[in-house]
Design goal:
By secondary structure, the protein is an alpha+beta fold. The chain folds into 3 domains: 4-70, OB fold (Dihydrolipoamide Acetyltransferase, E2P); 76-135, Orthogonal Bundle (DNA polymerase, domain 1); 142-192, no CATH class. Helices cover 45% and strands 19% of the residues. A 5-stranded mixed barrel has the order 1-2-3-5-4. The termini are far apart.
C-alpha cells in the first residue's frame, strides 16, 4: 500500500488534487475536508507550487486503480473504517468524509442521528441506520479528542490575553470542518476572528 505522498501541488478541485512527484503527476481523489485543509479558500498552504503531504489509500479493481488522499491520519482512518461497513465503497466513504469531519461523524454516530447521515448523497435511511449500528462504539473515542482539542485551543487563546468570552466566540466562529485540521492551523483560523474586516 502507498502510505503517503509528498509532492508539489499543481491544482485543486472540489474533489481531487493534482500532485507532482518528480516527473509524474498523480490525480488523487480527496474529500471536501481535505480540500479545505489544503487551502482551497486561498490559503498559501494550498497554493499551486507548494509542497503538500497526503496520507493515501490505493483502491484496486480489475478495471481501474484509484488513489484517495487525506490531509490527516484521522480522516484516513475514518475512511477505512467506513469501507468496512457493508454497502459502503470508496466513493460513498469519501462523500461521508466530505460532509462529516471525524469528530462530527463520531457525534452523529454516538447520537444515532440517522437523519443527518441520510443527507449524504447516496445514503438512504436504511444504510444510515447500518452505519450507526456498525460504527457505534468504534468512533466514540474521537468525540472526546475533539473536546480536548477545543480545550487546548481555548487555553492557547487565553494565554495570548483574550478574555474567556472572546476566546469562546472565536472558537464558535470556526467552521465544523476545522475540527480535522492541525492545532497550529486551527489557532491561526481562530485568531482571524479578531482581525477587523
Amino acid at each position: 500500500m502507498i502510505e503517503s505522498l509528498r509532492g508539489t501541488l499543481e491544482a485543486l478541485s472540489p474533489d481531487s488534487v493534482l500532485l507532482r512527484l518528480g516527473g509524474v503527476t498523480l490525480r488523487v481523489a480527496v474529500s471536501h475536508t481535505t480540500v479545505q485543509a489544503l487551502g482551497a479558500s486561498g490559503s498559501p498552504v494550498g497554493s499551486p507550487g507548494r509542497d503538500v503531504c497526503l496520507y493515501t489509500y490505493l483502491h484496486l479493481r480489475e478495471d481501474a486503480l484509484a488513489l484517495y488522499g487525506f490531509a490527516t491520519l484521522e480522516e484516513r482512518e475514518l475512511f477505512l473504517r467506513l469501507l468496512r461497513v457493508n454497502g459502503v465503497g470508496p466513493r460513498l466513504a469519501l462523500a461521508v468524509c466530505s460532509l462529516f469531519p471525524p469528530a462530527r461523524l463520531a457525534e452523529a454516530i454516538a447520537a444515532g442521528d440517522v437523519d443527518a447521515l441520510a443527507r449524504v448523497p447516496g445514503i438512504g435511511k436504511r444504510l444510515a441506520g447500518r452505519l450507526v449500528l456498525e460504527l457505534r462504539g468504534h468512533l466514540a473515542e474521537q468525540a472526546p479528542q475533539a473536546a480536548q482539542a477545543d480545550a487546548e485551543l481555548l487555553s492557547a487563546l487565553l494565554s495570548l490575553g483574550y478574555t474567556r468570552n472572546e476566546a469562546q466566540q472565536s472558537l464558535e466562529s470556526l467552521s465544523p470542518d476545522a475540527a480535522s485540521l492541525a492545532f497550529e492551523e486551527r489557532l491561526r483560523l481562530a485568531l482571524r476572528y479578531f482581525i477587523p474586516r
